[in-house]
């Protein structure tokens, strides 16, 4: 869940149509049309990725007159399914996966169950990945994967490239080779398993 | 009691309030004093910076350290990327790190005849931060226009590793050779736990979001550090790696420059430095029974520091961050993630944030790092409406002010803190060099506790910490000798 209070604003004089903004926007809300960047105000989630990467400083972030609340109602879907999806991705449903917006795994799972089929779509619906833009791509990809969805990265974009390994997938020979260097693979597996299977504190459908 | 040490000045940055709005520093208030770190721990090494030799000492130390480095792989027609990270620029005002970077370029050019030497400076979560430093320290001029900041959302490049494909930033690797220019300051011990600290930027400031998310979400709090090693050990990165040059840092300043073609050898040396000297500071801060934490430094909330200990680590100082048998520090992103909907941890053994911090007075600290967890769990007073508004406009901190209150002035904030908490112990995170700024009661407390902490770390904890990291105890003995 995110309260979107900012909006990207393009200075058309400064914009040179380089498309950097288009390649980094996590919700595909900015596009270059006739060599100038244009923001879809309804889609913009105020993450400032475009503003922070525009090589020509053509974008500024302005306060929205009316903040927009983006969230997915978890109680609108069958919570058993939400829980199942999260646990299969080895995430606790109440685990926070986006630190900036404090969005929990259950909301992303609910978004998927409601039809979100790509990280872009999930970010648009829940606001995840529109804070720091960095840390939460992997749990999103893990949840999509266990739902049987294989999204393709946006063509020509730099939004994301692919799911990366988890601790459960580290080969035994790697674990053995580095056993004495303080990495604690097996102990962390046990810890994460215990978190993923811990009881719920509060069911969203109760 | 000694007068307070002048704190690091506020900096103009898009991530912080305008320096003119910082009307008062906490150390200027009545009752504040300072303690020299050498008074606490007399065995701290002598520093080369700050010293009467000035910044020239850093240049000389870099030149000296580079003498033992093999640069023969770099040919005049090649290109070299000197890789830097934002954090170095926050150390002792930033000049020492900038000077090491400049010296590196000059020495490489003089020794190899190579002229195509670029600076690629990675960031944390403030994507234009190193851009600001490049201008501030004249690095763009020194590198003849070939100095850029790079961010984790820039174009990526897949890197095949022993554990699968991870992703680096393309511009980091777009040269024949890379030179890893970093520092040994420990900073985020809650994340790296002093495991492969020297290697970490390969999984962080040189890496794409996929890799950084692997570190913080896929591997677990202690296995996470393998991300960087996996990338560094990959045939791709090994084919480009020339050498590393590190500012060696202890809580009291820059102690030298260490350079090596073997990053793991360098890593072992800085592991000892980190565990021994920062370990002592952290254990000492862990002894504090009650205090007000005052944030007063030009960097994000979590990173403001006092004697090399960042606020995020003080918030976890009720546990031993160096003890790898303890899986989750009181603060790390894995811990934050594991707080459920009723506001309590999902597992019983997750430690709470340091209960000694009775209140946080946020006099001056930047946005650009998700910090709401702190204001949610530690009563926080932010000084000035402008600063509060800046946090409300930061996509990473939209919830920070939900839990914090605002005071109009530093004096009012501190008065409020004194009255509500009942403690007169104040620990100021203002980057004071060579010492720490504290209130008088805390100064007395720390001076009394330090000898016992020193003894405990030397005889009991340090050998354990190094053993857990596979660092040879003989190395430690050599260092001690
Ligand atoms: S990144 Fe900047 S210059 Fe490039 S298209 Fe977008 S707004 Fe225009
Ligand atoms: S969502 Fe972010 S990157 Fe996209 S247009 Fe809005 S501010 Fe720019």
Q: What does this protein look like?
A:
The complex is a heterodimer of chains A (206) and B (481). By secondary structure, chain A is an alpha+beta fold. Chain A folds into two domains: 2-70, Alpha-Beta Plaits (2-Layer Sandwich), CATH 3.30.70; 74-164, no CATH class. Chain A is 32% helix and 17% strand. Chain A contains eight helices and six strands, in the order βαββαβαββααααα. Chain A has helices at residues 20-24, 49-53, 79-88, 105-113, 119-126, 137-146, 172-177, 185-196; strands at residues 2-10, 30-33, 36-39, 59-70, 96-98, 103-104. In chain A, helix 3 packs across helix 4 and helix 4 crosses helix 6. The radius of gyration of chain A is 19 Å and the shape is globular. The two termini of chain A are 19 Å apart. The model of chain A has no long low-confidence stretch (mean pLDDT 96). Chain B has a seven-stranded mixed β-sheet with strand order 1-17-16-10-13-14-15. A six-stranded mixed β-sheet of chain B has the order 4-3-2-7-8-9, with helices on both faces. Helix content of chain B is 36%, strand content 21%. In chain B, strand 11 and strand 12 (309-310) form a beta hairpin. Chain B has helices spanning 37-40, 56-66, 95-112, 129-136, 139-142, 189-192, 209-218, 226-232, 235-238, 263-287, 311-314, 333-337, 372-377, 385-392, 400-403, 410-421, 440-468, 473-480; strands spanning 32-36, 79-85, 116-122, 147-149, 156-161, 164-169, 177-183, 241-250, 253-260, 291-300, 305-306, 309-310, 357-366, 380-383, 405-407, 426-429, 435-439. The two termini of chain B are 34 Å apart. With 481 residues, chain B is an alpha/beta fold. Chain B has two domains: 19-43 and 285-450, no CATH class; 56-250, Rossmann fold. At the A-B interface, strand 1, helix 2, helix 6 and helix 8 of A face strand 6, helix 7 and helix 12 of B. Bound molecules: iron/sulfur cluster (SF4) (2 copies). Residues 8, 25, 27, 29-30, 39, 44-50, 130 of chain A line the site of one iron/sulfur cluster. One iron/sulfur cluster binds at residues 10, 15-21, 32, 37, 54, 56, 58-59 of chain A.
